[in-house]
Amino acid sequence: MRWALVASGVVIFAALYAPQPLLPGLERAFAVPPGAAGWGMAGPLVALVLFSPLVPRLRLSAGWVLGGGVFGVGVFGVLGAVAPSLGAWVLLRFLQGACLAAVPGLAFALVVRLFPERARVMAGLLVAGNAVGGTLGRVLAGVLAEGLGERWALALVSLPALFLAPFFLVGKERVALEPPRYTPAAWPLLAIGTSLLFVNLFVANLLPYRLEALGFSQGRIGLVYLAYLAGILGSSAAGVFAERVGEARALYAALGVVLVGLGGMLAQGGVGVFAGFALVLFGVFAAQGVAGGLAGRWGSGVSGAYVSAYYLGGALAGGVYPPFVGLDFAASVGVAALVVGLALLSVPRAAPSAGARCN
Question: Model's pTM, two decimal places?
Answer without folding.
Answer: 0.73
